[in-house]
Amino acid sequence: MSRTVRVAVTGAAGQIGYAILPRLASGEVFGHDTRVALHLLEITPALPALEGVVMELQDCAFPLLDDVRVTDDAKEAFEGVNWGLLIGSKPRGKGMERGDLIRENGPIFVGQGQALARAAADVRVLVVGNPANTNCLIAMHHGVKGGIPRERFHAMMRLDQNRAQAQLALKAGVRVAEVTNVAIWGNHSATQYPDAENAKVRGRPCTEVIGHVGWLQGEFIQTVQQRGAEVIAARGLSSAASAANAALDHVRSVLHATPEGEFFSAAVASTGSYGIDEGLVFSFPVRSDGRGGIEVVEGLELSEFARGKIKATEEELLEERAVVEDLL
Ligand code: NAD
Ligand code: LMR
Protein backbone atom coordinates (compact mmCIF):
# COMPACT_ATOMS: atom_id res chain seq x y z
CA MET A 1 0.00 0.00 0.00
CA SER A 2 1.65 3.18 -1.12
CA ARG A 3 -0.62 5.99 0.09
CA THR A 4 -3.98 7.18 1.29
CA VAL A 5 -6.18 9.43 -0.81
CA ARG A 6 -8.55 11.64 1.21
CA VAL A 7 -11.93 12.33 -0.37
CA ALA A 8 -14.53 14.74 0.99
CA VAL A 9 -18.12 14.02 0.00
CA THR A 10 -20.75 16.62 0.81
CA GLY A 11 -24.41 15.66 1.09
CA ALA A 12 -23.14 12.22 2.05
CA ALA A 13 -26.48 11.06 3.49
CA GLY A 14 -28.30 11.89 0.25
CA GLN A 15 -29.20 9.70 -2.70
CA ILE A 16 -26.01 10.24 -4.66
CA GLY A 17 -23.99 9.94 -1.45
CA TYR A 18 -25.48 6.51 -0.83
CA ALA A 19 -24.58 5.38 -4.35
CA ILE A 20 -21.07 6.82 -4.44
CA LEU A 21 -19.56 6.00 -1.05
CA PRO A 22 -19.23 2.22 -1.39
CA ARG A 23 -17.73 2.62 -4.82
CA LEU A 24 -15.17 5.15 -3.59
CA ALA A 25 -14.22 2.78 -0.78
CA SER A 26 -13.98 -0.26 -3.04
CA GLY A 27 -10.77 0.80 -4.79
CA GLU A 28 -12.31 0.97 -8.27
CA VAL A 29 -11.41 4.64 -8.71
CA PHE A 30 -8.05 5.25 -7.06
CA GLY A 31 -6.71 1.75 -7.59
CA HIS A 32 -6.38 -1.37 -5.51
CA ASP A 33 -3.04 -0.25 -4.07
CA THR A 34 -4.40 3.01 -2.64
CA ARG A 35 -6.16 3.37 0.69
CA VAL A 36 -9.16 5.66 0.87
CA ALA A 37 -10.19 7.98 3.70
CA LEU A 38 -13.69 9.45 3.50
CA HIS A 39 -14.54 12.84 5.01
CA LEU A 40 -18.33 13.08 5.05
CA LEU A 41 -20.13 16.40 5.35
CA GLU A 42 -23.82 16.82 6.08
CA ILE A 43 -26.14 19.39 7.58
CA THR A 44 -26.76 18.77 11.29
CA PRO A 45 -30.26 17.22 10.96
CA ALA A 46 -28.95 14.62 8.49
CA LEU A 47 -26.12 13.41 10.75
CA PRO A 48 -28.17 10.57 12.34
CA ALA A 49 -29.00 9.19 8.87
CA LEU A 50 -25.36 9.54 7.90
CA GLU A 51 -24.39 7.43 10.93
CA GLY A 52 -26.46 4.64 9.36
CA VAL A 53 -24.53 4.97 6.11
CA VAL A 54 -21.27 4.79 8.06
CA MET A 55 -22.46 1.59 9.76
CA GLU A 56 -23.09 0.12 6.32
CA LEU A 57 -19.64 1.16 5.14
CA GLN A 58 -18.15 -0.62 8.17
CA ASP A 59 -20.28 -3.66 7.41
CA CYS A 60 -18.87 -3.84 3.89
CA ALA A 61 -15.43 -4.47 5.46
CA PHE A 62 -13.67 -2.75 2.58
CA PRO A 63 -9.97 -3.63 2.92
CA LEU A 64 -8.91 -0.24 1.51
CA LEU A 65 -11.14 1.96 3.65
CA ASP A 66 -8.77 3.59 6.10
CA ASP A 67 -10.71 6.18 7.94
CA VAL A 68 -14.25 7.64 7.89
CA ARG A 69 -14.91 11.05 9.41
CA VAL A 70 -18.37 12.55 9.84
CA THR A 71 -19.03 16.21 10.47
CA ASP A 72 -21.37 19.13 9.89
CA ASP A 73 -18.43 21.55 9.74
CA ALA A 74 -17.11 22.24 6.23
CA LYS A 75 -13.61 23.22 7.33
CA GLU A 76 -13.26 20.01 9.34
CA ALA A 77 -14.60 17.98 6.39
CA PHE A 78 -12.11 19.48 3.94
CA GLU A 79 -9.03 19.18 6.20
CA GLY A 80 -6.21 17.82 4.04
CA VAL A 81 -8.43 16.32 1.35
CA ASN A 82 -7.16 15.51 -2.16
CA TRP A 83 -10.63 15.52 -3.70
CA GLY A 84 -13.75 17.46 -2.82
CA LEU A 85 -16.92 16.00 -4.32
CA LEU A 86 -19.47 18.76 -3.73
CA ILE A 87 -22.80 16.99 -4.02
CA GLY A 88 -24.74 18.34 -1.03
CA SER A 89 -27.53 20.65 -2.17
CA LYS A 90 -31.21 20.54 -2.95
CA PRO A 91 -32.34 18.58 -6.05
CA ARG A 92 -35.06 19.94 -8.34
CA GLY A 93 -38.53 18.46 -8.43
CA LYS A 94 -40.95 17.80 -11.30
CA GLY A 95 -41.57 20.83 -13.53
CA MET A 96 -38.51 22.77 -12.31
CA GLU A 97 -35.36 23.68 -14.25
CA ARG A 98 -32.02 23.19 -12.49
CA GLY A 99 -31.43 26.95 -12.66
CA ASP A 100 -34.48 27.48 -10.40
CA LEU A 101 -32.33 26.17 -7.53
CA ILE A 102 -29.69 28.83 -7.89
CA ARG A 103 -30.67 31.24 -5.11
CA GLU A 104 -31.21 28.37 -2.68
CA ASN A 105 -28.13 26.29 -3.48
CA GLY A 106 -25.67 29.01 -4.58
CA PRO A 107 -24.90 30.29 -1.05
CA ILE A 108 -23.76 26.79 0.04
CA PHE A 109 -20.81 27.10 -2.32
CA VAL A 110 -19.56 30.41 -0.89
CA GLY A 111 -18.74 28.86 2.47
CA GLN A 112 -17.51 25.62 0.95
CA GLY A 113 -15.16 27.41 -1.47
CA GLN A 114 -13.74 29.40 1.44
CA ALA A 115 -13.45 26.34 3.67
CA LEU A 116 -11.68 24.36 0.94
CA ALA A 117 -9.10 27.11 0.57
CA ARG A 118 -8.48 27.20 4.33
CA ALA A 119 -8.33 23.46 4.84
CA ALA A 120 -6.99 21.74 1.73
CA ALA A 121 -3.66 22.67 0.15
CA ASP A 122 -3.67 20.10 -2.66
CA VAL A 123 -7.26 19.52 -3.72
CA ARG A 124 -9.28 18.91 -6.86
CA VAL A 125 -12.93 19.83 -6.74
CA LEU A 126 -15.87 18.38 -8.64
CA VAL A 127 -19.18 20.19 -8.22
CA VAL A 128 -22.23 17.98 -8.74
CA GLY A 129 -24.93 19.95 -6.88
CA ASN A 130 -27.19 21.87 -9.23
CA PRO A 131 -27.02 24.19 -11.00
CA ALA A 132 -23.56 22.65 -11.16
CA ASN A 133 -21.76 25.12 -13.45
CA THR A 134 -22.77 28.23 -11.56
CA ASN A 135 -22.32 26.60 -8.15
CA CYS A 136 -18.83 25.68 -9.31
CA LEU A 137 -18.26 29.27 -10.42
CA ILE A 138 -19.12 30.41 -6.88
CA ALA A 139 -16.94 27.79 -5.14
CA MET A 140 -14.09 28.53 -7.56
CA HIS A 141 -14.32 32.27 -6.98
CA HIS A 142 -13.87 31.83 -3.22
CA GLY A 143 -11.40 28.97 -3.51
CA VAL A 144 -9.15 30.91 -5.89
CA LYS A 145 -9.19 33.91 -3.53
CA GLY A 146 -7.86 31.56 -0.87
CA GLY A 147 -5.09 30.23 -3.12
CA ILE A 148 -6.46 27.13 -4.89
CA PRO A 149 -5.57 27.19 -8.60
CA ARG A 150 -8.58 27.92 -10.82
CA GLU A 151 -7.96 24.80 -12.96
CA ARG A 152 -8.64 22.58 -9.94
CA PHE A 153 -12.40 23.35 -10.08
CA HIS A 154 -14.65 21.33 -12.38
CA ALA A 155 -18.43 20.98 -12.72
CA MET A 156 -19.82 17.60 -13.67
CA MET A 157 -20.84 17.10 -17.30
CA ARG A 158 -19.95 13.43 -17.43
CA LEU A 159 -23.51 12.28 -16.92
CA ASP A 160 -24.49 14.21 -20.05
CA GLN A 161 -21.54 12.74 -21.94
CA ASN A 162 -22.47 9.21 -20.84
CA ARG A 163 -26.10 9.79 -21.80
CA ALA A 164 -25.13 11.07 -25.23
CA GLN A 165 -22.67 8.22 -25.77
CA ALA A 166 -25.35 5.66 -24.85
CA GLN A 167 -27.93 7.20 -27.22
CA LEU A 168 -25.43 7.28 -30.10
CA ALA A 169 -24.41 3.67 -29.45
CA LEU A 170 -28.06 2.54 -29.46
CA LYS A 171 -28.74 4.35 -32.72
CA ALA A 172 -25.58 3.07 -34.43
CA GLY A 173 -26.07 -0.46 -33.09
CA VAL A 174 -22.59 -0.58 -31.53
CA ARG A 175 -21.20 -1.03 -28.02
CA VAL A 176 -21.00 2.10 -25.87
CA ALA A 177 -17.22 1.76 -25.71
CA GLU A 178 -17.08 2.08 -29.51
CA VAL A 179 -18.43 5.64 -29.33
CA THR A 180 -15.74 8.18 -28.46
CA ASN A 181 -15.08 11.92 -28.52
CA VAL A 182 -18.51 13.00 -27.31
CA ALA A 183 -18.26 16.68 -26.49
CA ILE A 184 -20.93 18.33 -24.40
CA TRP A 185 -20.74 22.10 -24.68
CA GLY A 186 -21.96 24.63 -22.13
CA ASN A 187 -24.30 24.30 -19.22
CA HIS A 188 -25.56 21.18 -17.42
CA SER A 189 -29.09 22.23 -18.30
CA ALA A 190 -31.66 22.00 -21.06
CA THR A 191 -29.53 24.34 -23.22
CA GLN A 192 -26.45 22.08 -23.27
CA TYR A 193 -25.22 21.11 -26.72
CA PRO A 194 -24.32 17.41 -27.15
CA ASP A 195 -22.09 17.44 -30.21
CA ALA A 196 -22.52 14.53 -32.62
CA GLU A 197 -20.55 16.32 -35.35
CA ASN A 198 -17.22 15.68 -33.62
CA ALA A 199 -18.14 12.29 -32.15
CA LYS A 200 -16.70 9.05 -33.51
CA VAL A 201 -18.12 5.56 -33.90
CA ARG A 202 -15.43 2.89 -34.25
CA GLY A 203 -13.06 5.73 -35.13
CA ARG A 204 -15.24 7.04 -37.99
CA PRO A 205 -17.25 10.28 -37.95
CA CYS A 206 -20.53 9.61 -36.15
CA THR A 207 -22.41 11.70 -38.72
CA GLU A 208 -21.24 9.31 -41.47
CA VAL A 209 -22.08 6.17 -39.51
CA ILE A 210 -25.52 7.31 -38.33
CA GLY A 211 -26.19 9.54 -41.30
CA HIS A 212 -29.61 10.68 -40.08
CA VAL A 213 -29.00 14.44 -39.70
CA GLY A 214 -32.59 15.14 -38.66
CA TRP A 215 -32.27 12.74 -35.71
CA LEU A 216 -28.79 13.97 -34.76
CA GLN A 217 -29.87 17.62 -34.75
CA GLY A 218 -33.30 16.96 -33.21
CA GLU A 219 -34.34 13.98 -31.12
CA PHE A 220 -30.80 13.08 -30.07
CA ILE A 221 -30.06 16.53 -28.63
CA GLN A 222 -33.47 16.82 -26.94
CA THR A 223 -33.20 13.37 -25.38
CA VAL A 224 -29.87 14.24 -23.76
CA GLN A 225 -31.01 17.73 -22.72
CA GLN A 226 -34.20 16.37 -21.13
CA ARG A 227 -32.91 13.09 -19.70
CA GLY A 228 -32.63 14.39 -16.13
CA ALA A 229 -36.24 15.61 -16.22
CA GLU A 230 -37.35 12.29 -17.72
CA VAL A 231 -35.71 10.37 -14.88
CA ILE A 232 -37.40 12.66 -12.34
CA ALA A 233 -40.78 12.15 -14.03
CA ALA A 234 -40.35 8.37 -13.95
CA ARG A 235 -38.72 7.91 -10.53
CA GLY A 236 -40.11 10.87 -8.63
CA LEU A 237 -36.48 11.49 -7.66
CA SER A 238 -33.49 12.70 -9.63
CA SER A 239 -30.84 10.42 -11.01
CA ALA A 240 -28.54 9.00 -8.35
CA ALA A 241 -26.84 5.78 -9.50
CA SER A 242 -25.96 7.26 -12.89
CA ALA A 243 -24.89 10.56 -11.29
CA ALA A 244 -22.61 8.78 -8.82
CA ASN A 245 -21.22 6.67 -11.66
CA ALA A 246 -20.53 9.77 -13.74
CA ALA A 247 -18.70 11.48 -10.87
CA LEU A 248 -16.44 8.45 -10.54
CA ASP A 249 -15.87 8.37 -14.32
CA HIS A 250 -14.88 12.05 -14.15
CA VAL A 251 -12.35 11.47 -11.37
CA ARG A 252 -10.89 8.48 -13.23
CA SER A 253 -10.60 10.45 -16.46
CA VAL A 254 -8.75 13.25 -14.67
CA LEU A 255 -6.34 10.79 -13.03
CA HIS A 256 -5.42 8.88 -16.19
CA ALA A 257 -3.88 10.25 -19.39
CA THR A 258 -6.52 10.54 -22.12
CA PRO A 259 -5.78 8.18 -25.03
CA GLU A 260 -4.21 9.89 -28.04
CA GLY A 261 -6.76 11.61 -30.27
CA GLU A 262 -9.61 11.31 -27.74
CA PHE A 263 -11.29 13.66 -25.28
CA PHE A 264 -13.97 13.73 -22.59
CA SER A 265 -16.29 16.47 -21.39
CA ALA A 266 -16.00 18.59 -18.27
CA ALA A 267 -17.00 22.09 -17.29
CA VAL A 268 -13.97 24.23 -16.45
CA ALA A 269 -13.26 27.95 -16.20
CA SER A 270 -13.16 29.36 -19.70
CA THR A 271 -9.94 31.07 -20.72
CA GLY A 272 -11.62 32.28 -23.90
CA SER A 273 -11.45 29.05 -25.92
CA TYR A 274 -13.99 28.97 -28.76
CA GLY A 275 -14.84 32.59 -27.91
CA ILE A 276 -16.56 31.70 -24.63
CA ASP A 277 -16.69 34.48 -22.06
CA GLU A 278 -13.63 34.23 -19.80
CA GLY A 279 -14.24 32.82 -16.33
CA LEU A 280 -17.58 31.13 -17.05
CA VAL A 281 -17.62 27.49 -15.94
CA PHE A 282 -18.39 26.04 -19.34
CA SER A 283 -18.29 22.47 -20.62
CA PHE A 284 -15.64 21.80 -23.25
CA PRO A 285 -13.94 18.77 -24.73
CA VAL A 286 -10.89 18.25 -22.49
CA ARG A 287 -7.87 15.97 -22.16
CA SER A 288 -5.97 14.84 -19.08
CA ASP A 289 -2.18 14.80 -18.87
CA GLY A 290 -2.42 11.86 -16.45
CA ARG A 291 -1.03 13.92 -13.57
CA GLY A 292 -4.36 15.49 -12.61
CA GLY A 293 -4.17 18.38 -15.06
CA ILE A 294 -6.76 18.83 -17.80
CA GLU A 295 -6.78 21.16 -20.76
CA VAL A 296 -9.35 22.19 -23.31
CA VAL A 297 -8.98 20.61 -26.75
CA GLU A 298 -8.66 23.48 -29.19
CA GLY A 299 -9.43 23.61 -32.87
CA LEU A 300 -12.49 21.36 -33.21
CA GLU A 301 -14.60 22.25 -36.21
CA LEU A 302 -17.99 23.73 -35.39
CA SER A 303 -20.76 24.15 -37.94
CA GLU A 304 -23.02 27.16 -37.94
CA PHE A 305 -25.69 24.95 -36.29
CA ALA A 306 -23.24 24.04 -33.51
CA ARG A 307 -22.11 27.64 -33.02
CA GLY A 308 -25.74 28.77 -32.60
CA LYS A 309 -26.37 26.11 -29.93
CA ILE A 310 -23.13 26.97 -28.12
CA LYS A 311 -24.03 30.67 -28.10
CA ALA A 312 -27.44 29.88 -26.54
CA THR A 313 -25.97 27.85 -23.69
CA GLU A 314 -23.29 30.53 -23.08
CA GLU A 315 -26.03 33.14 -22.83
CA GLU A 316 -27.83 31.09 -20.21
CA LEU A 317 -24.64 30.82 -18.15
CA LEU A 318 -24.10 34.58 -18.41
CA GLU A 319 -27.65 35.07 -17.07
CA GLU A 320 -27.03 32.64 -14.21
CA ARG A 321 -23.83 34.48 -13.33
CA ALA A 322 -25.73 37.76 -13.19
CA VAL A 323 -28.26 36.21 -10.78
CA VAL A 324 -25.50 35.31 -8.29
CA GLU A 325 -23.38 38.42 -8.73
CA ASP A 326 -23.73 39.23 -5.02
CA LEU A 327 -22.15 35.85 -4.14
CA LEU A 328 -19.03 36.52 -6.22
P1 NAD B 1 -30.56 14.44 -1.94
O1 NAD B 1 -31.59 15.41 -1.51
O2 NAD B 1 -30.87 12.99 -1.91
O3 NAD B 1 -29.25 14.66 -1.08
C1 NAD B 1 -28.68 15.91 -0.90
C2 NAD B 1 -28.01 15.90 0.45
O4 NAD B 1 -27.31 17.12 0.58
C3 NAD B 1 -29.01 15.82 1.63
O5 NAD B 1 -28.68 14.72 2.45
C4 NAD B 1 -28.83 17.14 2.33
O6 NAD B 1 -28.98 17.05 3.75
C5 NAD B 1 -27.41 17.52 1.94
N1 NAD B 1 -27.10 18.93 2.05
C6 NAD B 1 -27.89 20.00 1.80
N2 NAD B 1 -27.23 21.14 2.07
C7 NAD B 1 -25.98 20.79 2.45
C8 NAD B 1 -24.85 21.53 2.84
N3 NAD B 1 -24.86 22.86 2.92
N4 NAD B 1 -23.73 20.85 3.16
C9 NAD B 1 -23.71 19.50 3.11
N5 NAD B 1 -24.78 18.74 2.76
C10 NAD B 1 -25.89 19.38 2.43
O7 NAD B 1 -30.08 14.88 -3.39
P2 NAD B 1 -29.22 14.03 -4.44
O8 NAD B 1 -30.15 13.27 -5.30
O9 NAD B 1 -28.11 13.34 -3.75
O10 NAD B 1 -28.65 15.23 -5.36
C11 NAD B 1 -27.73 16.16 -4.85
C12 NAD B 1 -27.50 17.29 -5.85
O11 NAD B 1 -26.89 16.78 -7.03
C13 NAD B 1 -28.78 17.99 -6.32
O12 NAD B 1 -28.53 19.38 -6.43
C14 NAD B 1 -29.02 17.38 -7.68
O13 NAD B 1 -29.80 18.20 -8.50
C15 NAD B 1 -27.59 17.26 -8.17
N6 NAD B 1 -27.35 16.37 -9.30
C16 NAD B 1 -26.46 16.78 -10.24
C17 NAD B 1 -26.16 15.97 -11.31
C18 NAD B 1 -25.17 16.41 -12.36
O14 NAD B 1 -25.06 15.74 -13.41
N7 NAD B 1 -24.43 17.49 -12.18
C19 NAD B 1 -26.78 14.72 -11.42
C20 NAD B 1 -27.69 14.32 -10.45
C21 NAD B 1 -27.97 15.17 -9.38
C1 LMR C 1 -29.56 15.03 -13.95
O1 LMR C 1 -29.14 15.47 -15.01
O2 LMR C 1 -30.06 13.89 -13.85
C2 LMR C 1 -29.42 15.86 -12.69
O3 LMR C 1 -28.89 17.11 -12.97
C3 LMR C 1 -30.67 15.93 -11.90
C4 LMR C 1 -31.70 16.81 -12.56
O4 LMR C 1 -32.19 17.72 -11.88
O5 LMR C 1 -32.02 16.60 -13.73
Structure, explained:
It is a single chain. With 328 residues, the protein is α/β, with parallel strands linked by helices. It is 42% helix and 19% strand. A hairpin with a 2-residue loop joins strand 10 and strand 11. The protein is globular. Bound molecules: nicotinamide-adenine-dinucleotide and (2S)-2-hydroxybutanedioic acid. Nicotinamide-adenine-dinucleotide (NAD) binds at residues 10-11, 13-17, 41-43, 46, 87-92, 108, 128-130, 132, 156, 159, 188, 238-240, 243. Nicotinamide-adenine-dinucleotide is lined by residues 10-11, 13-17, 41-43, 46, 87-92, 108, 128-130, 132, 156, 159, 188, 238-240, 243.
List the helices and strands and how they pair.
Layout lengths: L2 E8 L4 H12 L7 E8 L5 H14 L4 E7 L2 H5 L4 E4 L15 H4 L2 H12 L4 E4 L4 H14 L7 E3 L2 H15 L6 E2 L2 E3 L7 E3 L4 E2 L2 E2 H5 L2 H5 L1 H17 L5 H15 L8 E6 L11 E8 L5 E3 L7 H20 L5
Parallel strand pairs: 1-2, 1-4, 2-3, 4-5, 5-6
Antiparallel strand pairs: 7-10, 8-9, 10-11, 12-13, 13-14
Helix pairs in contact: 1-11, 5-6, 7-10
Bound molecules: nicotinamide-adenine-dinucleotide (NAD) and (2S)-2-hydroxybutanedioic acid (LMR).
